[in-house]
Write a structure and sequence with these properties.
Number of domains: 2
Order of helices and strands: HHHHEHEHEHEHEH
Radius of gyration: 18 Å
CATH architecture of the largest domain: 3-Layer(aba) Sandwich
Structural class: alpha/beta
Largest sheet: 5 strands, parallel
Distance between the termini: 47 Å
Shape: globular
Number of helices: 9
Number of strands: 5
CATH class of the largest domain: Alpha Beta
Strand content: 5-15%
Bound molecules: cobalamin
Strand order of the largest sheet: 2-1-3-4-5
Helix content: 55-70%
């Protein structure tokens, strides 16, 4: 049997944009689990891409093609993850903070939250504190999830939390943070309610917040 997991991983690493959808479809037809294809195929590939970029083996154009390839693969898998939302567990706003355009991880978290039954409103990338606060006032979510992939954009997370406090709405909202450079210590330091290392942990956090 073809090991589609390896084939898919290599296709993302190699930026085989035109082939990825067909490969994912074949893997599904061969019985591969959509979650495993995301975690052990698409995400694992982006880890390799990140390391190769870090060591100077590849450059931004290659990284971008890999990211686009990953997104195409996700497009096929996303509908398979989204479960029954008839009964929403609560509302979560997701966003990548200002100055940061990375959205693959945030999109994954949003998808998994939707799949777990949360009404998830994704506000996109490069989101200013002001716009986020406007949306929080309008939508009144129980949870705000913030993503940052750049060390330079991480301070924006603190700003969001401070501003929620300044506006007097911090007490009614749980804030969770994540993204590759973020960790538990940073989350605690800026006063976030939780940190998630991956999409599954984000769902766990959101579930826990709803019970509090
Ligand atoms: C793909 C990518 C890009 C793509 C982004 C495409 C897109 N649409 O997102 C492109 C090519 C555009 C890009 C651009 C840049 N990038 Co870039 N990029 C990456 C790369 C290779 C992968 C990121 C990724 O998608 N990972 C896969 C996802 C699934 O993982 P994730 O984002 O970490 O998300 C998971 C968890 O963190 C968590 N999570 C994420 N968000 C949240 C939120 C919450 C609430 C929770 C609970 C959990 C959670 O769950 C997710 C799922 O498991 C990383 C390297 C890496 N391995 O991280 C570099 C990286 C992040 N980029 C980097 C850099 C430097 C840049 C650029 C500045 C390059 C340049 N010179 O132009 C620009 C910046 C543009 C900008 N202003 O944002 C550096 C950052 C270094 C630093 N210390 O800040 C990295 C680390 C590469 C490196 N090794 O140097 N990049």
């Amino acid at each position: 049997m073809t090991d589609y997991m390896d084939v898919i991983k290599n296709a993302v690493i190699g930026g085989k944009h035109g082939e990825i959808k067909g490969l994912v479809q074949k893997a599904l037809a061969a019985g591969f689990d959509p979650n495993a294809l995301i975690n052990d195929g698409l995400i694992a590939a982006m880890d390799v891409v990140g390391k190769d970029f870090g060591t100077g083996k590849i450059f931004v154009p290659e990284m971008l093609v890999a990211a686009v390839t990953m997104k195409s693969g996700l497009d096929i898998l996303k509908p398979l993850l989204v479960g029954d939302q008839a009964q929403s567990r609560g509302t979560v706003i997701m966003a990548t903070v200002k100055g940061d355009l990375h959205d693959i991880g945030k999109n994954l978290v949003s998808m998994m939250l939707e799949g777990a039954g949360f009404k998830t409103i994704d506000l996109g990338v490069d989101l200013s504190v002001e716009r986020l606060l406007d949306k929080v006032r309008e939508i009144k979510p129980q949870v705000v999830g913030l993503s940052a992939l750049l060390t330079t954009s991480m301070p924006e997370m603190r700003r969001v939390i401070e501003e929620l406090g300044a506006q007097g709405i911090r007490g009614s909202i749980k804030v969770m943070v994540g993204g590759a450079p973020v960790d538990r210590t940073f989350a605690a330091k800026i006063g976030a309610d939780g940190y998630g290392a991956n999409a599954a942990e984000a769902v766990e956090l959101a579930r826990r917040f709803m019970c509090q």
